[in-house]
Predict the structure.
Amino acid sequence: GVGLGAWYLYKNIPAGADPMGPENILGFTSGILTGTGSVMTGRWMAVCKSPLTGGWGDSNCGGDLAPAIKQCGFDAVFIKGISQTPVYLYVDNKGAEIRDAAKYWGLDAVEAEETLIRDTRKKKKPAVAVIGPSGENLSLISGISNDMGRYAARSGVGAVMGSKKLKALVLAGTKIIKGAEPEKIKEIS
């Protein structure tokens, strides 16, 4: 998903935008082959204008978030702007909803993930990308956690998430992911 992220940010972040400001965009991208049965294509990317360099910023991570993006019916989720209060973004088959995250703000990443899973779980366990107190406090070395401690932790992506007052991305979609030619994908893999 790095190509999609680079293209989208290039087209939509104005020159000179403050990496910690409302014009910066934080993206969560999934690769084109994620969930199709192809081998080693299940990583996700966090992309943004980096507060460390002022240029391109990305970090990737494994786990269940990449297929969860696809199971919501999307290839990527992009966030722009800054909330006045702590929020999380909940996405499922029906679409996206911004929800209050005050009760999760201040929790460490694993504790917040466990609590969000418990609070939002329906039939299927949701996938969660979340920041802890270092991201909330805009530490430039903070990352984004998923799967109870896997981290996308380069380029200051956690600080950008914190600057938006976005505690978490919760993905609860159940759509089927299929490649056009599953047998061919399996053969090539």
The CA atoms of residues 63 and 80 lie 24 Å apart. The chain is about 25% helix and 25% strand.
